Amino acid sequence: MPQTIVFFVETRTDEQSVALCRWVDHFYEQGKRVQVVASSSVAAQHLDQLMWTFAQGSFIPHRIGSSGQPGLAVEPVIITVGEAPVKGAAVVLSDGPLSLDFMQGFDTVVHFVLLDDAEKRLNSRSLWQAARERGIQVNHIAYVSKGRVFPSIPK
């Protein structure tokens, strides 16, 4: 299995969902299978709706599902509630924290560092340190002002 790489992407709380959708769109355009882990059923529904509307002209085929559910094999993007791995997913993004053990089941992980939440920012710093101690490759993506939610996404 290839080494896991974790992108620590700085954003603000009110921009996180759109940033998540843009990253999902990027990986979908690359032909990668993507899992989005939502922190709750309500969050999953919100992300489901947002993936249809976050950008004019965008279309990300996706569905809310759970590990082992019939029909998931055909969808390139699956939204799950909690850490339930989806077979074949190479990329994982989340609206909340994920465990390092779960992250290491993917080639690419996108973790959002919420700049306007001191506690979550501190938790992200701890996750960065723990990932480095495990030998996981980490990359920092600095915040770019609202309107351009992320800088150029690495290939």
Tell me what you see in this structure.
This protein has 155 residues and is an alpha/beta fold. The protein has a single domain (5-141), classed as Rossmann fold. It is 30% helix and 23% strand. It contains four helices and seven strands; from the N terminus they run E-H-E-H-E-E-E-H-E-H-E. It has helices at residues 16-29, 41-53, 100-103, 118-133, and strands at residues 5-11, 34-38, 62-64, 77-81, 91-94, 108-114, 137-141. Strands 3-4-2-5-6-1-7 form a seven-stranded parallel sheet, with helices on both faces. Strand 5, helix 3 (100-103) and strand 6 form a beta-alpha-beta unit. The longest helix is centred in the last third of the chain and has 16 residues, at 118-133. The chain is globular. The protein starts with a strand and ends in a 14-residue tail after the last strand. The model has no long low-confidence stretch (mean pLDDT 88).
- Which spans of ≥5 residues are poorly predicted at pLDDT below 50? none
Between the first and last Cα atoms, what is the distance in angstroms?
Answer: 18 Å
CATH superfamily: DNA polymerase III subunit chi
Average pLDDT works out at: 88
Number of strands: 7
3D shape: globular
Return the structural class. Answer: alpha/beta
Q: What is CATH's topology name?
A: Rossmann fold
CATH architecture label name: 3-Layer(aba) Sandwich
Oligomer: single chain
How many domains? The number is: 1
Biggest sheet character = 7 strands, parallel
* CATH first level: Alpha Beta
Rg measurement, Å: 14 Å
Helix count equals 4
